[in-house]
Structures
1.
Amino acid sequence: MAMGKRPKARQGSPLWVTTADLPTNAGHPFFEHLNRVLEAAGFDAYVEELCAVFYAARMGRPSLRPGRYFRMLLIGYFEGLSSERGIAWRVADSLSLRSCVDASENASLF
């Protein structure tokens, strides 16, 4: 037997896990409740109406929805993050916070 090789019987299971086998959690309860409160108050429509004058009708990079932007700022405030990069990193790192700001896994956050 060569050095570093195990017999097939002792090699064990493969080293990968399918995404269906990964555990899922319910998310972050505080931010889920915050989302429900903001949804009930009509936050997104209200903020979009207030910010409409600042968004160009054409040209430039498509912007973030104002509701998503302010939700990310709220996350930064509640978690003590002072920079947009820090907020974007925190939201990108946490699946429960991504669902809070309604971002897909491949979406650009800022």
Note: Helices lie at 29-40, 43-51, 66-79, 84-93, 95-100.
2.
Amino acid sequence: MTGRNKIRICVLQSCIENTKGAISEVDPYKKPEVYDKDGEFEWHTAYIGKATSASQLVALAAVRPPYDVYLNLCDGAWDEDRAGRDVVEALERLNLPYTGANLPFYEPSKIEMKMAAQYYGVQVPAWVHIERAEDMESGLAEALAPPAHGGLRFPLIVKHPSGYGSVGMTRDSKVTNAQQLREQVSLLVQQFGGALIEEFICGREFTVLVVEEPAAPPPGSAAAACMAAVSAGGSGGAAAANGSSSSSSSSSSSCNGKQGGAGAGSKDAAAALDPDLSSFRVVAYTPVECAFGPGEDFKHFNLKWSDYETLSWTPCADPELAERLKEAARNTFVATRGISYGRCDFRVHADSGDIYLLEINPNCGVLYPPGLHGSADYIMSLDPAHDHLAFIRTIIASALERHRLKQRKVRPAFFRRPPRPAATVTAAVATAAAAAAAAAAAATQPNGNANGNGHAAQAGSGEEGAAAAAAAAAAADEERSGAGGGAGGWGLRAVVPIKAGEVVQRNEQRKHVLASKGFVQRCWPEGSRQREWFDGYAYPLNDDVWVTWSDDPNDWLPLNHSCDPNTWLLGLDAVARRDIAPGEQITIDYATFCTGHMAPFDCCCGAAACRGRVSGADHLADWVGEVYGHHVSGHVAARRRAAGKQPQAGASIATATTTTTTATAATTSTSSGANGIATSNGAQH
């Protein structure tokens, strides 16, 4: 990477001018460029103020030529006057590639760390959290209760409940009796509004730097070049993100034997919950022991920032302990939704050898100049395979690859239909009104009907009849209002080429808004707007639970129907059924996930196989198994099995029909013309 091919890095640092926090007085500026001795990168630095972070980032984003990546070293806490989370918010809003923590990982509380780590089998010291000043007495009573009744054992240590840089901690934060405990808790509650009381783990202290690596960036990309340079420099030892390592079960105890962990051992070490994170692997650098000088046994504020010369740093020489520490660090990183890098601090119990997590530090202090090293810098200086330059290359590569992967493949778009002649609209009004009257009369008389595709429809239920009546009445109202002429509806449009088999809309491991049928019947009466939306846009997970719409329009993903769609289901995900071109509307066949509750509608998708009329009974037709095979929802598959219907093994992406490959911007997938609310994961018709 030389000349014009150099990666342009903009280093973001929290400006300390006119700030008054404790950290501002002692934390020096970082100097990442000093570790790039051969000038591999092009460096620029911007000092960001908390009050001006948004405007500064907007100005930086407009610089030409643009910066390739932002190395974000801003680490101000929520209650500080230094830039921090606000910088990440601006970077996200401006869609800029950046290193360091994202919003979910930026500043987890110590309680959130403990909960997440315990579920991943990482032990933590027993604790009591005093959340508010009014909880101080009850919290002290809980901590001082007899151990047999859940109380803590001395010695104890009192900490900031969120915490950063040992703020609020002094040598007196470690206490050995009730009076000392009360004094220290009172100080932190007055200063920070709360306090965390933990059992003090007697033993050695270690710190482990965890770094995210892209597993396979595209060949020829800047991310691939960075990782190639890392490999050429001897960096290695990557741990698989899907967790190939494991450890045996171990009990949890503190220095006085109190259990503080919820689970032991590790299954699927460092296995990310998010399926999209399989593109990254989690690497734990060599653990380093922090040894304390005479009279010290934990890092309080002055020791960390002023008297640090008394600390000594040594790589862990015990291979078995080093691997256990690495595994605990990887699990903690993934449990807390780690991004880019983070440093984990651990205590190893002096008697049992058990490992206890003290905390994870997202956006930990790093890349200080030589002579002013922080904990993470000592780790890199003592690990030949992962020196400072290798670290810089890795986090840059990860930032670029993560940015590439998070770019949207589809976006909501309004698809307009061409206006129709006035005579056509008048005729449509009459037809729709007649259909509404007929549907209303038939709503109480279940009977069989043709479904518009030449297949015999299932006998209609009262629920289906009511839905049909509502749909027909809505169509008549729409025609009268003129909405059917020159109007259209919302849908999803591809913004990049999408290959057959690619996930188009990720629904696995994603939030859904759910409603039970009982709730709908109780709270959304017939004729209400919510009930109309439910009838038109909700889809079932089973006979009683439905996916509905979010109240946040940013979550709406209106996925329209086509009788020859370009996506189908793979589990909960919508996957490309064939190659999809930019600008093409994303469609799916409602028969693959909607059942009897869905209001029927006339389809105008334009496919050669268009069945004209789409209804909730379609999911039981024989052709669903022939065309879509197993690419239907679990609920539809269960209903088909109950009806004696079986999928055809031949249905696959390779054999998908390709009658209609493009939906133009002038045509919606259906004839309802609804500008309606899509569900959070998207049915609109």
Note: Residues 422-442 form the longest helix (21 residues).
3.
Amino acid sequence: AGLQGSVGIGHTRYSTTGSSTWDNAQPSFRGLGERSIALGHNGNLINTVELAARLGSAPGSTDSELMTEAIAQKILRDPGVSLADAIAEAMPEFEGAYTLVVMDETTVAAARDPHGFRPLSLGRLPTGGHVVASETAALDIVGADFVRDVEPGEIVVLTDAGVESRFPMEPADSRLCVFEYVYFARPDSVVAGQNVHGARVAMGIRLAEESPAEADVVVPIPESGIPAAQGFAAASGIPYRDGLVKNRYVGRTFIEPEQIVRDRGIRMKLNPIRETLDGRRVILVDDSIVRGSTTRKLVELVRGAGATEVHLRVSSPPYRWPCYYGMDTSDRSSLLAAHRSEEEIGDFLEVDSLGYLSLDGLLDSLPHANQSFCTACLSGDYPTAIGNHKFVREET
């Protein structure tokens, strides 16, 4: 049966803290007597320990649950408060990265943290209604026209009369996650004015200029490595060929939270095309190397299919520092590049040569993006204080 109603929210975010269980699934919900709220969240808070103590919640509560509880407590204290006012009152308690969609019986509201770590777009439906989404591709899918990005520090309220906007918090130094362009966003999305596919092609072109190699074919690691491989091939003059076939019924391996799931996913996910690889010098192009487990197994697959040489090119810099803003990489000990040189990484991956895109090369590939970026995972430059972050506290 179809759903009935005039407001709704949905969620597909993977878990960046804890396992992917139904208990951690979103949207989170609170029944508040005559009112109720549901919340969906993208990002990570960095003050969950303090927030849980302040709210009287269990220390292991997810950040999404804590934000739901914080907003719910504002409503319980003042049952007549509007949803937007409750969110505005709670936002100063949230430190870190968040885009939120929150719903009650009549209203949908969306909010973005003052740094704007994660994207959030506003669209208009042909029927006159409005929609917000983490990517513009989602607007395309439901037939909505892109209106604008929700600004850092802004709350937008979707009503029958239109869209209301307020800024309960002053925007801070803009820090959109650069990994949205490298990996997270769909290639058909536009993030902060920059087409993602075009950015990834540009990364591949710059990578070929910075780290050339003599080879017979350029082969992408699908799917997020495809645009960069196209750019690399175009710039180098080396033929582009598909050499790995993806099983489209298997999800993305990097974002799985547990290593055993990632390993199983690799075996099911990709199969080499021997006719492309056998007897050839191969340049493999990938968007990033985080833990290295996926990449090492792929190199083994390509060599097993007859490649005489494997040269790995990566369209982002070495991933050396943990992310506390919405990626599943809070444990630095699991990061391949954290304590290894590029030569040591190449030896571990068993490739004939290894080349990364420079940070300047990455940023130069985003000429149309109208803001600054968070590059903490690549540079170690964190835009917020992280000393009280729950992961840091748990590790010390």
Note: The chain is about 30% helix and 20% strand.
